[in-house]
Model the fold of this input.
Amino acid sequence: MKKSLICVSCPLGCPIEVEIENGEVISVSGNTCKRGDAYARAEITNPVRSLTTSIKVEDGCHPVVPVKSSGPVPKDKMFECMQVINSATVKAPVKIGDVVIKNILGLGVDIVATNCDCGK
Ligand code: SF4
Done:
């Protein structure tokens, strides 16, 4: 089986073809550099994404504050992470860089504020 990907490791966006047999990567082609090879193999075996969203704020001057994951999250855990974040509330004041959820789902990744809210 062949799978086509676009490498997102740099702005060049090389089109990559991955040949897969029994769930294993047999070959990677189209990449211009080693990073593309690593990206393609990871994308097939353990795809991850950065999570960017917002979280509810109690007593804030805004109803929500933007947050992001401190590192990549497995793609198949994104929905569960969003459920945790959507059901959580942080109390103002919130500063940029504050950890609003520590070690979400035990993944070793924190959810961190990317903006501030001084509160009402
Ligand atoms: S393969 Fe290399 S050059 Fe091409 S997009 Fe990926 S990182 Fe950039």
Summary: The first helix runs from residue 34 to 45.
